[in-house]
């Protein structure tokens, strides 16, 4: 029952959400049934469906049912993991190697056996050189030894924290079949669309613009799984249509907040539909104000603190996220018990204090009541980022800062912020991935070349922060490493290179005939081997 | 002698279309080139980022490290050999992606245009037969109301009524997924799926044809030749259908040709609402993903379709109005 507690704590502090929560009741009637088809709404179709190359939620949503990682996240497993293709993993004391025991009796969808050679190939030829996140995590990977078909030993050229690799397993270790990819141009291999994996489902058909059809893998290593015969991801680009399709019983599940928050209240009262707010703890997003430190005014920490004091986090959570979010204190979300520290400087909503700080910094209100003007670029990724942009404009207007909103579509926004640095402040939504080293430290690290999206393109540079990041990258001791990241959070709260406003995730709406929904922290992007549907 | 003349007209139009297409392509290329961000930026947003070296590798692999002039030259060179290029958004040849969507869009557009034109001009005749009558005023009011309604909203209302409440029709898609249906059963299935999007699109445009037909007819009643016909005691019904309506049809047919263009592009919203994998959505996706070859491919096909539609309209025009043909002799 531990997951029930964590699921409640995710939304604790918001009465609105608590009232709306339709958690699966304990002792919920119904036993898993074998067979049947589950129809799910998909809002996008990634061009490259290969999770070993593109580790992203959009790819995992479909591909995680077909291609499996070495381990998956779990609410109650050791270190928060449950085994998949690996059954055990152990790091050497010197941080130079990690040994994986691989599962027996696993075959690829084309019938060939899965062996340690596949893991070695994937690690050296795909994760390390090609994968967006693997290039960071496996930077020091030197060799993979395969003493036998069931053992893979990863060797590192420099001490590498076992903790990091462990935390990264679900995201970066999707294993590809060596016999399909070896000797080809991996990025152009047709199997990137027609995936071949070891998962509980085979990719049977993809009709672009219409659907992905997944069919049961009869030879899955877990003989009791999968429960479902088929999963259909129906492409529904319009969000209002996803809600209608649920109501009309033409789809049974819409994940990743495909039903807009504004429709949730209505949808949750439709008989036969359930709203799940859990199952996304492992995919927590941060709502962040990015700050261009090249701007003279914003280079002053007093101004940045004023910007933080001017934001009413409570209002943001209640009004923009309708309660489906939490106020943030720093770059690590609160559910992460290993790395999170609440012991940081806070910036409560206090417009008077904000104005005092701005006066102190020498930016008095002019004759028109304006201190200075800022170019504000809200990312177009979510409805909420755009709404928060509008809110920021008002909130900053009240303390005498005139923020002009510049709206861009996605490629234009990325170029403006991360390549051209043509912004003063921007609204962003970085994802936290179980370990700060995977995609969080690059928000603070200095000296990254221009053009790298979702990284520190803010011009913030601090030797102490860089030192903490460097040390944590090679610290093998788990406790010491966590302490370094806590120090990073304290320093980030002091310096405010960027402002963490809220942490949020997604919701799932499903018919009550669907079983085993949201039963792990990455459910939407896990393999759904135990999901079932009442006929 | 009739066939060679038609053929000559067709060939002449095709020859005339080539520079038009070239200008259309160049314009689209420049427009998309002016938009900030490239295909790699769009890709990275979906992938959740990558490091600088991988980004540079991607740009090189997709030819984005070259200047716009070189890229346009390369595209034109490939196009001359009949190659539409490689779509980075779909990681497949543009030709395959476009050909996949073309039948869906042509079916949707063809049905919607036929219904809008047929029903719209028919109702226009009914309204214009007795201008100022109760029937005329009711039809005119209804068409105005329809014309004022945005397409997506109409679509959503139809979904709520016919798919969610009554459950007569599917919410979206173009056929039941992997149903295994073949032949007539599959055709019926597709028909059911297309009913709502076709209805939405045709209702939006129907109003236009109705108004045009009705107004033209109302004006024609004051023409001397109509007055003469009526003075000769020719039955009103015969005057309406044989003389007034036939005359009023000319501007409506002209409109049909213009409509072919806006229908291809104007369906983005309806295609999204009903999850129909058509051309409008493809074009929108190509822009969002900064997929230059795909967008140019879509525009090229669209332009060809519009030119073809206009050619057909002109031929129909010549049949309806003998004066058009005589001018070319």
Spell out the key features of this protein:
heterodimer; A: 535 residues; alpha+beta; seven-stranded mixed sheet; six-stranded mixed sheet; 21 strands; globular; B: 329 residues; mainly alpha; two-stranded antiparallel ribbon; 14 helices; 79% helix; TAT_signal (chain A); Peptide/Ni-bd (chain A)
Bin the strand percentage of chain B.
under 5%
Mean pLDDT across the residues of chain B is 85
- The spatial strand order of the largest sheet of chain A comes to 8-9-10-1-11-19-12
Largest interface, counted by CB within 8 Å of the partner chain's CB? A-B, 64 and 53 residues
Which regions of chain B contain 5 or more consecutive residues with pLDDT less than 50?
none
- Class based on secondary structure composition and strand pairing of chain A: alpha+beta
Short description:
The complex is a heterodimer of chains A (535) and B (329). By secondary structure, chain A is α+β, with helices and mostly antiparallel strands.
What this model shows, in words?
Chain A: InterPro entries: Peptide/Ni-bd, SBP_5, SBP_5_dom, TAT_signal. Chain A: It holds the Pfam family SBP_bac_5. Chain A: This is Peptide/nickel transport system substrate-binding protein. The complex is a heterodimer of chains A (535) and B (329). With 535 residues, chain A is an alpha+beta fold. Chain A is 30% helix and 19% strand. Chain A has 17 helices and 21 strands. In chain A, the strands form five sheets. Chain A has a seven-stranded mixed sheet with strand order 8-9-10-1-11-19-12, with helices on both faces. In chain A, helix 10 packs antiparallel against helix 12 and helix 16 (463-474) packs antiparallel against helix 17. Chain A is globular and about 75 Å long. Mean pLDDT of chain A is 89; it is low at 1-29. Chain B has 14 helices and two strands. In chain B, a hairpin with a 4-residue loop joins strand 1 (86-87) and strand 2 (92-93). The model of chain B has no long low-confidence stretch (mean pLDDT 85). The radius of gyration of chain B is 24 Å and the shape is globular. Chain B has helices at 2-34, 39-47, 52-61, 68-80, 94-129, 134-148, 151-165, 183-220, 224-231, 236-266, 268-273, 279-288, 292-320, 322-328; strands spanning 86-87, 92-93. A two-stranded antiparallel sheet of chain B has the order 1-2. By secondary structure, chain B is an all-alpha fold. At the A-B interface, helix 3, strand 8, strand 10, helix 8 and helix 14 of A face helix 2, helix 3, helix 5, helix 7 and helix 12 of B.
């Amino acid at each position: 029952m531990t997951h029930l507690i964590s699921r409640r704590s995710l939304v604790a502090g918001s009465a609105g959400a608590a009232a709306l929560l339709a958690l699966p009741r304990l002792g919920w009637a119904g036993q898993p049934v074998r067979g049947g088809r589950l129809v799910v709404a998909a809002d996008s179709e990634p061009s490259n469906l290969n999770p070993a190359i593109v580790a992203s939620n959009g790819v995992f949503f479909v591909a995680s049912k077909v291609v499996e990682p070495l381990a998956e996240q779990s609410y109650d497993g050791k270190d928060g993991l449950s085994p998949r293709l690996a059954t055990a993993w152990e790091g050497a004391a010197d941080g130079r190697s990690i040994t994986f025991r691989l599962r027996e009796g696993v075959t690829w969808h084309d019938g060939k056996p899965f062996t340690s050679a596949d893991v070695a190939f994937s690690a050296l030829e795909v994760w390390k050189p090609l994968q967006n996140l693997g290039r960071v995590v496996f930077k020091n990977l030197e060799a993979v030894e395969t003493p036998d078909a069931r053992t893979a030993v990863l060797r590192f050229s420099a001490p590498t924290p076992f903790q990091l690799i462990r935390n990264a397993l679900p995201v970066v270790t999707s294993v590809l079949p060596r016999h399909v990819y070896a000797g080809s141009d991996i990025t152009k291999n047709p199997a990137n669309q027609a995936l071949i994996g070891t998962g509980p489902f085979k990719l049977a058909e993809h009709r672009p613009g219409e659907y992905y059809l997944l069919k049961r893998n009869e030879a899955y290593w877990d003989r009791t799984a999968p429960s479902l015969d088929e999963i259909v991801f129906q492409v529904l680009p319009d969000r209002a249509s996803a809600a209608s399709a649920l109501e009309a019983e033409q789809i049974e599940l819409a994940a990743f907040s495909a039903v807009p928050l504004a429709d949730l209240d209505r949808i949750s009262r439709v008989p036969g539909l359930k709203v799940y707010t859990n199952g996304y703890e492992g995919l927590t997003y941060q709502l962040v104000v990015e700050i261009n430190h090249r701007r003279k005014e914003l280079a002053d920490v007093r101004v940045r603190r004023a910007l933080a004091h001017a934001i009413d986090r409570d209002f943001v959570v209640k009004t923009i996220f309708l309660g489906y979010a939490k106020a943030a204190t720093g770059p690590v979300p609160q559910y992460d018990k290993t790395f999170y520290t609440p012991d940081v400087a806070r910036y409560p909503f206090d417009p008077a204090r904000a104005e005092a700080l701005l006066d102190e910094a020498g930016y008095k209100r002019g004759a028109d009541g304006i201190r200075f003007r800022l170019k504000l670029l809200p990312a177009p990724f979510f409805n909420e980022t755009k709404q928060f942009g509008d809110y920021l404009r008002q909130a900053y207007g009240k303390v005498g800062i005139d923020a002009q909103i510049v709206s861009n579509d996605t490629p234009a926004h990325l170029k403006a912020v991360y390549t051209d640095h043509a912004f003063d402040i921007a609204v962003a939504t970085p994802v936290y991935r179980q370990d700060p080293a995977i995609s969080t430290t690059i928000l603070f690290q200095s000296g990254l070349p221009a053009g790298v999206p979702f990284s520190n393109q803010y011009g913030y540079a601090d030797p102490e922060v860089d030192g903490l990041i460097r040390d944590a990258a090679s610290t093998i001791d788990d406790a010491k490493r966590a302490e370094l990241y806590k120090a990073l959070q304290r320093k980030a709260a002091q310096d405010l290179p960027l402002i963490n406003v809220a942490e949020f995730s997604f919701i799932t709406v499903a018919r009550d005939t669907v079983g085993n929904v949201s039963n792990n922290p990455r459910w939407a992007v896990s393999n759904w081997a135990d999901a079932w549907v009442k006929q | 002698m009739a066939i060679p003349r038609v053929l000559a007209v067709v060939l002449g139009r095709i020859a005339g279309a080539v520079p038009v297409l070239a200008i259309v392509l160049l314009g689209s290329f420049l427009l998309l080139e002016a938009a900030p961000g490239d295909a790699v930026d769009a890709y990275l947003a979906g992938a959740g980022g990558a490091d600088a070296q991988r980004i540079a590798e991607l740009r090189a692999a997709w030819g984005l490290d070259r200047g716009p002039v070189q890229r346009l030259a390369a595209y034109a060179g490939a196009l001359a050999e009949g190659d539409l290029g490689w779509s980075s958004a779909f990681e497949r040849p543009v030709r395959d992606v476009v050909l996949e969507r073309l039948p869906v869009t042509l079916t949707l557009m063809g049905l919607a245009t036929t219904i809008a034109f047929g029903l719209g001009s028919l109702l226009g005749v009914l309204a214009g037969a007795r201008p100022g009558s109760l029937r005329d005023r009711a039809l005119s009011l209804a068409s105005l109301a329809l014309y004022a309604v945005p397409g997506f909203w109409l679509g959503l209302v139809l979904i709520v009524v016919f798919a969610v409440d009554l459950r007569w029709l599917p919410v979206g898609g173009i056929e039941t997924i992997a149903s295994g249906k073949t032949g007539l059963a599959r055709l019926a299935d597709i028909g059911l799926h297309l009913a709502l999007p076709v209805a939405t699109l045709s209702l939006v445009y129907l109003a236009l044809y109705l108004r045009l037909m009705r107004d033209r007819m109302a004006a024609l009643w004051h023409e001397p030749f109509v007055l003469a016909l009526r003075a000769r005691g020719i039955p009103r019904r015969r005057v309406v259908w044989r003389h007034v309506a036939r005359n009023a049809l000319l501007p409506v047919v002209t409109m049909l040709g213009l409509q072919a263009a806006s229908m291809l592009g104007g369906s983005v919203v309806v295609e999204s609402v009903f999850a129909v994998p058509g051309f409008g959505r493809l074009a929108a996706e190509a822009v969002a993903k900064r997929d230059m070859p795909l967008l140019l491919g879509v525009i090229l096909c669209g332009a060809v379709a519009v030119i073809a539609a206009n050619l057909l309209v002109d031929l129909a025009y010549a049949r309806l109005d003998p004066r058009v043909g005589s001018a070319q002799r």
